[in-house]
Amino acid sequence: MILLVILAGVHCQNHKDLVEEYEDRISKAIKDTDTYTLDTDAYRYKPKSNEIKYFGEFDYIVIGAGTAGSVVASRLSETPSKRVLLLEAGKAPSTVTEVPQLAGQAAFSDYNWGFYSTPQKQACQGYKDNRCAFARGRGAGGSSLISYSVYSRFSFYDMQRLSNLTGYEWTIDCYKKSENFTQTNADAIIEQSAHGTTGPWHVENAQTNNVRSDAFRDANEECGQPLRDYNTVFHEVGVDNLQLNKKHGKRADTFTDFVMPVMDRSNLNVSLESYVVRVEIDAESKSADSVLFTKNNVLYRVKATKEIIVSGGTVNSPQILQLSGVGRPALLNKFNISVVQDLAVGENLRDHVALVITMSHNVTDEGVDLKTAVEEFLDNKGVLTAASVDWVAFYDSTRGEYPDMELVIMPNLPTPVPEMDAKLFNFAKEAMADMIASTPPKVFRFLAILLDTESVGSVSLQSDSPFDYPLINNNILSETEDLEKLYTLINIVRNLTRTEGFKRIDAKLVTPKLSACKGSEFDSKDYWLCVFRQFGLPGYHCVGSCPLGKDPKKGAVVDPQFKVHGVEKLRVADCSVLPFLIRAHTAATCIMVGEMVSDFIKNYILFL
Ligand SMILES: Cc1cc2nc3c(=O)[nH]c(=O)nc-3n(C[C@H](O)[C@H](O)[C@H](O)COP(=O)(O)OP(=O)(O)OC[C@H]3O[C@@H](n4cnc5c(N)ncnc54)[C@H](O)[C@@H]3O)c2cc1C
């Protein structure tokens, strides 16, 4: 009995210490990002001399411990006789990545490469120099370290298109293999048979329920949107509580879930803060033999006996391929890079388009102090367990079968956080001032996303230096259809405001008063198209820069087994291989790609 009392006392003390520790760590993470300046290039990795040191030999080298790369390294190292090296430019996860609510701060830290698009003509006019912020994760876990953690799978339509393209079936079984799902919100509608419960990647429901989210759910139901699980085979229109990648409220990035639990495998070697300069491909045999990378500003060569898998993501994988001589001769010749293989690398950059929509309401919230928020967080509840996102509704603008747009509600995002917004989105001064002036005191936000866009952009080298960032011309909103579709979303929001659900909280669409749009009648369609050109954002779901396909003459960079066309021992495994946009957030499908590439390498898929 006495022992039990003592143990309970120890538990309380430990819990109190843990709460205090998290309060300190979170405060520090917020303070650090206040003063952080994003990198503008990768010269921090430049070696001090050209001398190349030998790093050894491995069966497989995986470049990038990001969302897909972590899966590949984990799966390949399941075979004890195969030596696997995982190279990653960034660092291990930490508090700023572990606490989902700090996603904004994480995107303003060392965990973001800090890319920006080239100046845009049709979009991002309200951002400094007309350049869109183009966040990409850097670190063990990649973009899954800074994402909003929304777990979302492709539609049946995407599945059929990918199956037709590759000649083998893409199924939701591949999602289920990675998934470890736990229902943590009784209000969520879940089709249990569509979910996996034994995979490494944790999925839980959002649990930050509040009256604004309830109103959103009710408003959608009144408008005919069924309440249903959006992650089934069909992924149809409807409204549901979000499924998020988290474990007991903490972010479930892919390094933490796929690699950390198997770090004790003696055949798995992980080298962080290791920046890959290029893959060395033998010009005659066209075989990828080794990788050059820098670590602590020393240049290393590491040999691969079997294969090299490039998992640098949609921006860096094409950059690495181009620096290695795989790309269009016109570009490579400009920088005196010997051409190994002529392929359309970087020419098919595609992305969803996002818009933050502001809504006013009449609800007064009781604030939560940090201590309470941390206590709730450690109990897998409350605002810190999600990046402000809570419920989602998928819509179909074409009245076809599958959704092509969505609204994610951010019910708790505080009323303008000018400095954070300005930093995150790169707002120009005048646009920011207009935005603040037009925002009422009580607001919530929607993240509106177009899931099927027409615009095509590119990623290409800026110079022959691996330490210069590549040029990203995302070219969003260059096609009129995309602008028109965004306007459909505004009309959907207007319809929601007419429902009893939204009237309950007096939810109204806030049309920002922008000086740049004063040439059009306020709140008219033309006015909104101008708002989209000012504030439309890349959806951060970029794909397609190393597209999958059978025919390189039609632009394919990798074949259906993810092998680079015309080059031996070289594959790409990340979101860059998806040749077209899927009608979903992208992380889960990047993981599916990682699973499939690993299966191909291990010869589990023999039916081709
Ligand atoms: C802010 C943000 C929010 C998002 N929110 C969501 C969401 O809620 N749900 C969702 O499904 N998707 C979301 N996404 C998209 C999703 O995160 C990405 O599509 C996905 O994670 C990309 O995975 P990947 O494997 O292609 O690349 P990444 O995960 O980006 O991995 C690439 C890795 O390669 C490393 N690397 C690159 N170059 C080199 C080099 N030269 N040497 C060594 N290492 C290198 C990088 O550091 C990185 O770790 C979001 C993305 C962002 C940026």
Structural class: alpha/beta
How many DSSP E strands?
25
Helical fraction: 25-40%
Distance between the termini: 66 Å
Mean pLDDT: 93
Bound molecules: flavin-adenine dinucleotide
Radius of gyration, rounded? 24 Å
Q: Low-confidence spans: pLDDT under 50, at least 5 residues?
A: 1-8
CATH architecture of the domain at 100-137 and 174-243 and 350-366 and 395-538: 2-Layer Sandwich
CATH fold-type name of the domain at 100-137 and 174-243 and 350-366 and 395-538: Glucose Oxidase, domain 3
- Describe the main β-sheet briefly: 7 strands, mixed
Helix run count: 17
Specify the overall morphology. globular
Give the CATH class of the domain at 100-137 and 174-243 and 350-366 and 395-538.
Answer: Alpha Beta
Provide the CATH superfamily of the domain at 100-137 and 174-243 and 350-366 and 395-538. Glucose Oxidase, domain 3
Q: Strand share of the residues?
A: 15-25%
Domain Glucose-methanol-choline oxidoreductase N-terminal: 313-327
Active site: 541, 585
Organism: Brassicogethes aeneus (Rape pollen beetle)
Protein name: Glucose-methanol-choline oxidoreductase N-terminal domain-containing protein
